[in-house]
Amino acid sequence: xxxxxxxxxxxxxxxxxxxxxxxxxxxxxxxxxxxxxxxxxxxxxxxxxxxxxxxxxxxxxxxxxxxxxxxxxxxxxxxxxxxxxxxxxxxxxxxxxxxxxxxxxxxxxxxxxxxxxxxxxxxxxxxxxxxxxxxxxxxxxxxxxxxxxxxxxxxxxxxxxxxxxxxxxxxxxxxxxxxxxxxxxx
Length: 186
Prior knowledge:
The chain is an alpha/beta fold.
């Protein structure tokens, strides 16, 4: 929601600044009572240049985060059953539709297409990883998952079996540090 409000503020700022420029130009050219039109035109051009630069700075799009390859990982698959999860897969609660609720070690509800388990000393909880152009989130860990291994969650045991063992490059988003510009002239 915060990003939406920030993005909505930018067009408002551009419109506001543009209206301010028009008002300033009108006042300088027609209503300020000066008898030196050449000087007013020069001042107006300078104001217009300053406002144009300001508007361009405000409307610049943020950089897209770049992907960084972590290397080739062994990909395995699991579901919430006791064959895949051992004692943790037993006696799981069900939701109002009778579907088994699988909670991860990170406290998340496991979701196919989102949840993966990883070595959290390498990829901490919440890390977004991209595997074969699909984004997953590290929400689980496992006793046999060490180093460059990622276990992908599936709803059904058969789907996990069909996935089998694969190898693929794993990517993460590069962290971009935003520089906060300070204006000491204010």
